[in-house]
Amino acid sequence: MHASHAENTAPRTFIQTCIELTKPGITKLVTITALVGLILAGLHYNTTGWGLWTKLILGCTIGTALASGGANALNMWYESDRDALMGRTKGRPIPSSRLTSRFVLLFGVTFCVVGSLILWLTCGAMPALVALVTTASYILAYTPLKPITISNTLVGAIPGALPTMIGTAAVAPGAGFEPLRDHIGLTLFVLMFMWQLPHFFAIAWMCRDDYRAGGFKMLPSVDPAGNHTAAVMIITSLLMIPVALLPLRVIPELAGWATAAAAILLGLGLVWVSIRFAFKRTDTNARIVFFGSIIHLPVYLTVLVIESLLRSAL
C-alpha cells in the first residue's frame, strides 16, 4: 500500500481533509482488488442469488474501503513528524495543522473497526480477519521498518496484496481458516505483491531526495547510480508475465486467451519501459515506469474479470 509520488496541498474543507486522510487513490485500488477477488471466486464456486451477491458486493466494497481508509489515516498519524520534513507530504493534514494528531488517530481506529465489523457482518469472519491483519501489518510492520531497512518495500507489499483475499475469503468453501488458503486468493495475492515492486521502485527513484530528507531507507537511497533499482525493476516486471498467466491454470474455466494476451502484452510493455529506465536513469523514465504500472494493473484486471463474466455466462 504505497503512496503516490505527489500530494495536493491546496486548501480544503474539513470533509475534503478527512477524505484526504484515507488516501483515496490507494483506498480505491485496494477496494477494487478485493472486489476482483470476490467476483472471480464467486463465479468459480458458483455463488448464486441476487440478494447474496448484493450483500457481498456492498459489504466488501464499504467494509474494505473503510478499513483501508482507516489504515491510511493511521499511517499519516504515525509518520506525521517525518511527513513534515518532505516536500511532497508536508501539506498533509497533521503537518499542515489542518487536523490534530489525536483526531487522526481516532479517525483511523474508528474506520478500521467499523470497516472490519461491516465485513464480518456481511461477508464473514475471515474477510474481517484479513482486513485487520492488513492494517496491523501495514502500521506495525511496514511503517516502522521504513526508516530502518530497504527491505521495508517487500514487507509493505504484503498488506498491499492481502486485500485481494478479503473478497475470495467471503465465498471460498471450508471451515475455520481454510478460505484463507484458497488458490484464487493466493494467486491474486502473488499478482498484487509482484505488481507493487516495479510500481514502487519507480516512485522511490523519483522521490529519493524526499525520502532521504524524511529519513526513510529506500533502495535508491543506497543505490545512487540506480544499478540495483533498474535491475529489480526489470526482474520484477519480467516476473509479472508468468504471475499474470497463473489464472489460466488456477481458474481455466474463467481465464483464457484474452487474459493470456493481456498478461503477455502488458507485461512486455512494463519490461520495455523498465529497460528504458535502465539505459537512462532519469526521473522522466522512472515516471514512465510508474504510469506503465498504473496502466498495467487496471487493464489486466478488467480483461480478466470481463472474460470471466462472459465465460461464466456461456
CATH class: Mainly Alpha
Shape: globular
Distance between the termini: 36 Å
**SSE class:** mainly alpha
Strand content: under 5%
Average pLDDT level: 93
Q: How many domains would you count in the coordinates?
A: 1
Helix % is: over 70%
CATH architecture name: Orthogonal Bundle
Number of separate helices:
13
**Order of helices and strands, N to C?**
HHHHHHHHHHHHH
- According to CATH, the fold-level topology is Farnesyl Diphosphate Synthase
The biggest sheet, with number of strands, parallel, antiparallel or mixed sense and barrel status, is: none
Work out the number of β strands.
0
Q: Segments where pLDDT lies below 50 for 5+ residues?
A: 1-10
Rg, alpha carbons: 19 Å
Notes on the structure:
This protein is mainly α and 314 residues long. The chain has one domain (14-313): Farnesyl Diphosphate Synthase. The protein is built from 13 helices and no strands. Helix 3 (50-78) packs antiparallel against helix 5 (101-123). The longest helix has 31 residues, at 283-313. It is globular. The model is unreliable at 1-10 (pLDDT under 50).
Name the features.
disordered N terminus; 314 residues; Farnesyl Diphosphate Synthase; 13 helices; mainly alpha
Give a nutshell description of this structure:
This protein is an all-alpha fold and 314 residues long.
How would the blueprint of this fold be written?
Blueprint: H1 14-21, H2 24-44, H3 50-78, H4 80-83, H5 101-123, H6 125-145, H7 152-161, H8 164-171, H9 183-206, H10 208-214, H11 227-250, H12 257-279, H13 283-313
Helix pairs in contact: 2-3, 2-8, 2-9, 2-13, 3-5, 3-6, 5-6, 6-7, 6-8, 7-9, 8-9, 9-11, 9-13, 11-12, 12-13
